[in-house]
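Much of the work behind modern protein science is quiet bookkeeping, done one molecule at a time. The protein below has been through that process, and both of its lines are reproduced in full.
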Amino acid sequence: MMYDDEGTPTEKTAILEKGIVKGFMHSRETARQFNVEPTGNARAWSFEYDPIIRMRNTYIAPVDQKLEELIENVKDGYFLMGGGSGQADFNGEFMFGVQEAVKIEKGELKESFRGATISGNAFEVLRKVEGVGKDFAVHVGLCGKEQVNYVGIGGPSIRTSLLLGGR
């Protein structure tokens, strides 16, 4: 069994299930305030830092659709691949670079673009999820909340709606 930096056993912390909020990440302090059990989410970069509530391995669980099924009804959109650096605020606002953006026209992948950046509100993006793939990949990333720390991030391909801006 693994432990967080407060000595709390870690466990799977389901935050959303089928679009419904099911739980929250807690340290010993916030668990006491909310009268719940701590979830093992207090982590520190090193002994020089106080543990703070932060994600561990964070992902969207795969479901049942193939990539072809996710894009078949997309008239005009982009398939975004390979997360890059970015940031997210406490209010859900985010900005991330992607390694590649492939144009989707009438359900078919077309030309590819590099160096794209996306931004939006995570709550809105999650609310608009229309499909979840069965593919699944996790890679090492960094969480920069107050202090840098390694995390595993990833999941399946998803189909959602974003407001497209820029040129």
